[in-house]
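Record pair follows.
FIRST:
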Amino acid sequence: MTTSNRLKSLIRTITVPIALLAAVCGAAHPAMALEIDLPAETALYKQSDMPGYTLTLQNCLMCHSAQYAQYQPKTSPRSYWEATVKKMKHPFGAPFPETDIPAMVDYLTKTYGAESSTAATTK
């Protein structure tokens, strides 16, 4: 028997039992699916009867959470919110129609900005 044949035989002798052992161990302890329970979403836009509320839900949540609006300065004027919403449309390319902008700005300004009741109390 040549050295090459002895080496091949030795490899087979070691490899087969290791493969069988791995198969038996794997069958004895099947892999379990990892289950992760995430908490409910807590960052939601403040509910409102204003038309901009529904439009904001439809147009803004597709890219970021409501926390984006919640963390803006409470004293932000209408011009700030208008510039912010327009920035999302151009240059960022948010896929909402231009006609949605005034209602969204109105909702954001009156709910999170300078025209909200909390803005008056935080000044």
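SECOND:
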Amino acid sequence: MNPSKRLSLVFWKTLPAILLLSLVTGCIVVQSQYGPPTGLFFQRTTMNHAFPKGTDLGSRVGTACVQSYAWLYSNGEAGVRAAAAEGGITTIRAVDYSILRYFIFYEETCTIVYGD
């Protein structure tokens, strides 16, 4: 077998392994001590970073989200200002975050604002 054909054969045999390895390593997430545990296939979590339990949250809630589809397209506005505007909030008392993930097919990250 000539060298260029052998090189081509090696390339096509190793390509699936390289692609699989690149996908798998992209799924590994370094855990933060402040973030929730992640689920590889499914995740639904809500977390709060700034306010303890029992805090008066106010009478209104506003939510703003970003959606991602198969890591190919992402769209949305998940800022605190957008969430406050959606809920008609002028005084922010607490901010939560929520994550909904179905493997790589769909992910939604939301900012939840509480206040008056």
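COMMENT: The two ends are 76 Å apart (CA to CA).
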